[in-house]
Amino acid sequence: MRFFANFSIFVVSFKLTTMSETNDFQQIQKLSQEMALKQKASQLQVMLGQLIEMNDDEIKDRIEMELDDNPAIEEAATTTSDDYDNDNDANRDGDDPFDTAFSQSDDDDYDGYDDELRYIQTKRRQNYDTDVYRPPVVNEATMNEMLMSQIRERDLNERQLLIAEYIIGEIDDDGLLRSPITSICGNIISKENEFVTPQEVEEVLEVIQDLEPAGIGATSTRECILLQIEDMKGENIDIAQVAHAIVDKHFEEYERHHYDKILIALNIDEETFHKADRIIKRTNPRPGNIFSSGERMSNAQHITPDFVVTNEDGKLQLTIVNDIPELQISESYEVEYQRITKRAAANESDSDILIKRQYERATSFIEMLKMRQEKLYNIMKAIMLKQQEFFITGDTMTIKPLVLSDIAEMTGYDVSTISRARQNKYVDTNWGIYDLKYFFGNALDDETSATAIKEIIKEVVENEDKRKPLSDEKLCNILQERGYNIKRRTVAKYRESLRIPVARQRKTL
To answer: Does pTM top 0.85 for this prediction?
Structure first.
């Protein structure tokens, strides 16, 4: 009896242990699944945030990359479709690839402000067809190619051409040679095993500085301007000589706008200085900027509006510029995915796992694009509502104080989503093209935004007497006279944000 009793206790104990371990395993498995889902959701949120931050050109590049990398995704057959209008939802099903129901997260509750739009109408369209200048793509020679082409026309031997090639290779995008002569000598010696002297390099550099455009290859901004002034001496030699003397002997005073010191030092009157100043201002301290191809071309930012707001008889229409192609899952991948999901996971091959991964990545990407379009559309609609008076009248003084949290409250999106949405985004209006950041600004008072005050400062400075430019204190007084309660340090902060120099540096004769 004692043996059986002990055995029974052992069995019970074993069963309890087994059940405990099973529960632990299930909890661990459940926790692991929850963590995996959270991680996937987090990755999708990161992807969505990145897509929202991209502008029109960047999103098209991103889509092209996805099409190249993932065979499970493809462009749908393009069909000609009319504008998508919110008033005709029921009659337009399937017309717009970004008008399907969206999976909404906690921050997606943007209902509740459509009834406040009053006379604002909202529209979408597939293609952006308003008159926006798009420069033609031309295969132009780079700065290095143009300079080498010119230098080969000069009477130089092979050794000098080699030196010229190294010098031109060191000229930066501004067209200036900032590398020391000794450094160029060292490069030629180490890479070509050819000994050259600084004097030889300087002689070739003089030839390069005689090429077009004038000022190319200068070793400093001052030398660049001097080279260009020497090119102008045929026009008015006397005034050009004065301009040359100002830059050659008094460049530091000229940069600091200490014009009175220059007048005394050169013994010239204000009229002569003014004529010489016009010659100096005709020069280009960055002659390399005229070369628009090569790397500079790739870095150039051509503004393509992401939204269009039009005003027709007091009614606003919002259009999201939707040039991105409609995407779909490849039919063969759809069939394969359905076949794989019906099979037991243990029987999946490596190729099955790859197909599933590519399929799920493609569906996630398409869903993220849909969410991106919806969020951008609603955010711009909220901005349009807040600043509707400006969009109707074009009067910058009607721009209301607006911060990210205001739009977040209206749309139900997170503040970080609003912040990303306004990055590198532009809206085309009846009054011009504006950066979305233009419509945001802290309140100076209940009705006036910082943006409106900045516009006043810009206008006053543009119309000031440049012989006696206005100090921050005087700008502050003008604003106070117009009824704005503002302090001098706030004026200084706004002026600096507009990149307007201090009064002393704005002074001219």
So the answer is: no
